[in-house]
Here is the input.
Amino acid sequence: MSHQQDITRLLQGRSFIELSARERAHSLLDAGSGRELAGPFERLYSPWLSAQGIVAQADDGVVICKGLLDGQPAVIAAIEGGFQGGSLGEVGGAKLASALELAAADNRQGIPTRAVILFETGGVRLQEANLGLAAIAEIHAAIVDLARYQPVIGIIAGTVGCFGGMSIAAGLCSYLIVTREARLGLNGPQVIEQEAGVAEYDSRNRPFIWSLTGGEQRQACGLADALLDDDSVLIRQQLLDFIARGLPEQPRHRRSQHMLQRLLAMDSTSQADAASARQLFQSGAKL
Amino acid sequence: MSQPSISQRGRDWFHALCGSAPLQQGLPPSLLVADGELAGQPARYIAVVADPHNPFERARHGEVGLLEGWALAAAIDAAVQADQQQTDKRAIVAIIDAPSQAYGRREEAYGIHQALAAAAAAYAGARLAGHPVIGLIVGKAMSGAFLAHGYQANRLLALNDAGVMVHAMGKQAAARITLRSVDELETLAASIPPMAYDIASYASLGLLWRLLETEQPDQPTPADVQQVRTALAEALHDIQADPQRDLYQRLHGEHRQATRRIRALLQGQWSEIGG
Here is the structure.
């Protein structure tokens, strides 16, 4: 890309990553249709953080916006990566789980509410450990329920990425949109290094980490459906395309027999790299 | 670095509860699956156990890893499929003794999050399809391992014992991530119930349907087994008498007041806005 193109691109200012969770939600919904539920003026502070000397936030880092997508009812649950690493505690977890459950209840009453989850999260908030974990189990339950009626679409833009129990939530989504900045993995690099040692996983080696868990690699492996530039307009268009497509024929998580066979057939003694992962997923049918 | 010690509890309770029922073939040795009975009704018992020869070396201590996640999904989906035409769906009993998910390079590269999603989706799908799903925690129920194996159950039961633990992360790693010492973490855990590592604090969150007293959780006596069987049967009947198949029953805990308040608020505002 030329210098002039770089400048033009910068001036267009359509970055999605640079937006806050609240701005992201509104940028995706039909213009002017978004209404925030259980918003910051309700002052829903975490009851557990202040007792630990941590400043709480009035929305607990989760933004729920109800509105329209292409004229159809939708709810967007956006996690704010800038607050406590996007971690989910009792309050934010309850907001997210409840919003998804209400969307499923709408569908049972004939209202075709869709849900979009903006993942920017390290997973369970360790300061609220078991209540975060419980809420994440409830989020999983709600996604599985809702995805019977409408596609549930996940977006991982970056820069926090999507880890822990919420990476499992991403794996339950009907469609997943990522950027190159995104990372998707069960365990955060620091935790793996702590548990398995630096030879197994060097949390400071960023190219290594992106090569295994970055958006480009995940899309190449079929663990995400679309890899997009950091562009709000493109991301919104892709979101609308996935909604129009309806439920996927076979969700990623329904490939157990195929994946078991592939994993048992592979050489598990050699250490993994990006190429061996692509080989695992690309041989045979698309995951 | 930490090396978890290998627990036999999951294996022992699995065999104690399903007796002589034959093991399902064609699954990795780290997954025990058998069709037995519960209260005279068909039930599929499932445990994840340590396999020292697991081809994935980071999953040799009973962790839920790549094979375990996908195999759990396969074993549960098979039961759902087999009972598709039945009005009475077999119960699924998850026996939980899992020190953690598997932490490793292969695991991340090969999409362990997707394997665990497959297992969670299979359990949730079974529950929604009308299978009574019961989680019995006999040892550790840690983080991603628990999310994949048991946390989607209609009812959760746990042995009341110091060896039983539910948590999001082991102490060392949790201390590192939250920039605290292990001592500081333990001090906080003593006054913040959701952070605590003991099962009584966990019970105060309202997530358990019942806490069970046993004499020998490590080597269950016949009386222990009988008592757990009775509790499982009661859980089964409780589920069958319940028209709801969701997880609403976990929301009533003493230390989940904020959860209830937020859910009520969101529900009210949701209907105010309308479609």
